[in-house]
Design goal:
53% of the residues lie in helices and 15% in strands. The protein is an alpha/beta fold. The protein folds into two domains: 104 residues, 2-Layer Sandwich (Nucleotidyltransferase, domain 5), CATH 3.30.420.40; 87 residues. It has a six-stranded mixed sheet with strand order 3-2-1-4-5-6, sandwiched between helices. Helix 5 runs antiparallel to helix 8. The longest helix is centred in the middle third of the chain and has 33 residues. The radius of gyration is 26 Å and the shape is elongated.
Length: 201
């Protein structure tokens, strides 16, 4: 395997497909394995360039592979797609990754550090919380509208929902349900505020 200069890895949830080739682009081997098997294989493999598509799990994997002495590179999936041949399968994808990586003009994605990944998680978590809060607000507006109560759009009126409920004659059970939704709204707002403060620090 010492003639292998490039390994393309198609990342799956439980299985990984490897395509190894020499400096001339000729296929040397193909291998399907679990993550532990792949890591043992790479740990015992002479240093070479290992390339994967940039995805959720590739950044951590790239750091681990680099620590073994290999050169780990990531490619955006959009740059790999043109090299995927017909009869698509996981080995074909791994080969396409190698072909894309072999292009002199190829642009690679820099693997993120743990801190950079954590920051990305914080931003995505904040976006998710905002979506959940918007959904909760829309639910409250919708439920009230079903009972003839039309409120102005936005968060301001929801923040004073307790006084709004007192102004209208609504079923006790509905009021209780809306109060629970409002508690969820308050919780989401607090979590968003905490993340905003963490991201600003």
């Amino acid at each position: 395997m010492s003639n292998v200069t490039l390994i393309g890895i198609d990342i799956g949830k439980h299985t990984f497909h490897l395509h190894a080739q020499d400096k001339f682009g000729n296929e040397v081997s193909r291998k399907k394995c679990s993550r532990p098997q792949m890591m043992r294989f790479l740990a015992n493999h002479p240093p070479c360039t290992v390339v994967m598509e940039a995805c959720a799990g590739s950044h951590c994997l790239a750091r681990e592979i680099k620590a073994m002495g290999h050169e780990a590179k990531l490619i955006s999936p959009q740059f790999v797609k043109p090299f995927v041949k017909s009869n698509k399968n996981d080995f074909v994808d791994a080969q396409a990754i190698c072909e894309a990586a072999s292009r002199p003009s190829m642009r690679f994605v820099t693997p993120k550090s743990p801190d950079q990944q954590t920051l990305s998680v914080s931003h995505r978590m904040r976006e998710s919380l905002i979506r959940d809060r918007t959904k909760t607000v829309n639910q409250m507006h919708g439920f009230l509208l079903e009972f003839g109560v039309s409120l102005p759009t936005g968060l301001a009126v929801i923040k004073r929902l307790a006084s709004v409920l007192e102004e209208h004659d609504l079923p006790v059970r509905l009021v209780a349900l809306l109060q629970r939704l409002h508690e969820h709204f308050v919780y989401l707002s607090e979590q968003i505020k905490v993340l905003d403060e963490e991201l600003a620090s």
